[in-house]
Amino acid sequence: VKVKIPFGNKYLDAIFSVPKKKSTYGVILTHGAGGDMNFPHLVSLAAYLASHGVLCLRFTCKGLNIAYRTKAFKTVVEYLKLSDDYKLLGVFLAGRSMGSRAAASVIRQLSQDDDDDFIQGLICLSYPLHRPKLQSKLRDEDLLFIRCPVLFVSGSADEMCEKQLLEGVASKMKAPKKIHWVGKANHGMAVKGRTTEDVMEEINAQVFSWLRENIELEHE
């Protein structure tokens, strides 16, 4: 279902992937610095989640300014929260690369604003912990503030997220967290000798099983 979400004086393009059965939880998903919501990995994940009973709303927000991207993400969260069509108990925020930074930033901001538990967790696909070859400057400040469960899915050869550095940040985080390393994958999740479909199957299954664990934990 295509929708346009009001954002300032313009609209954000978004698409709902709706499960057959009514969903009580949803995932909001956005793209990295390049591309849009039709990035193949996002389309694949959204379809997988919907086919497994989880509503997924993915949206496009162009712009390389992280504050702008964060504001857009926040608008989408509010939109879904107030939606009459999909009455959800909670959502998980997910993003690829820069989109996952925006998601983390939203969670930090909203957790300071109020203490409602609409946001259930954070999914970071290829979180860009540092710029290539600039390991001294880590983008970890939002992560250290977050309290809800966090899943990282990163390539073990990601040039923007060195394995030891992410593990170091994770060990300092107060949130319950899990890291799934995709062996030999780079920042774009490409792995020599494996098809994109094959890698996506691994990622989608990991995301869904983590979601299921966290939804069950909350509501046993």
TrEMBL record:
PANTHER family: TESTIS DEVELOPMENT PROTEIN PRTD, TESTIS-EXPRESSED PROTEIN 30
Domain KANL3/Tex30 alpha/beta hydrolase-like, first and last residues per copy: 27-207
UniProt-listed SUPFAM superfamilies: alpha/beta-Hydrolases
Gene3D superfamilies reported in the protein's UniProt record: alpha/beta hydrolase (3.40.50.1820)
InterPro entries for the chain: AB_hydrolase_fold, KANL3/Tex30_Abhydrolase, NSL3/Tex30
Protein name as annotated: TEX30 protein
